[in-house]
Amino acid sequence: LSSHYTISLIHERCQDLSSAGLALYLPNKEALENGVLILEMEEVITDIHGKLFAPKSVEFPMHHKDLANKFGLVIFSELDQAFKGSNLSPELIKKLLISMEFCHPVDSSLLRDEIRSLLATRYEWLYFPSLVSQDAPLNPFGSSPSDVQSCVWLCWELRGLGYPFLSPRFQHSIFLRLAHKFIQQVTDDKDNQILQHSCTVWKNGIFWSTIHEVDFQVQTFSSKATVQVLVRSRNGILPLMKEAPKVIQEV
Question: Which is deepest, 23, 47, 184, 233, by most CB within 10 Å?
Fold first, then answer.
């Protein structure tokens, strides 16, 4: 077998192991031979939870780094400090966290002016949904009594029976997947314009509005192991019936 074929075959087998959940494969697109296969996943995940997401009431043998803040934005250099002494390189740790959907890289040019003015944009930033320190408000829709009567509402809940709480990783996955799938730049075919979507994220929830005047709030209640989807349509029942099932199915 040629060297190229051998590397390609190893690459395929590593992908198979990763797809089966037996390991995590971080391929190097520029050079396949520099890809990394992580086998001790349980140990790595425990290390991540202990250093980044451990509750203050729980003592872990590793050093816990409190990185929570209002926006959930963390400088890459702070992440490097949190995992100082690890067998993994800082760049590999970043790829690992992104691959496992713990965080997402941030393009500072896309941030709102009021947020960008507070950040040193020359640094590399990562966004962690579960490191947002602010809880969801009691009334994220800002609804008045007249809104409650004039709008169409839907509430759907998913409860994990037998689970004492929702893990940070589970909440990460929900918020990141919803943001990726439903809150992005959308092209309006009618006049070929790019419509900007934005969202509000709290420690335990995410809120966004669609171009069809349908508002969504997805909130997690960790102690009850429950995910709640609350939907408000300001444009009648048909837009709600069209858009709500897609979000519920994703959750």
Answer: 233
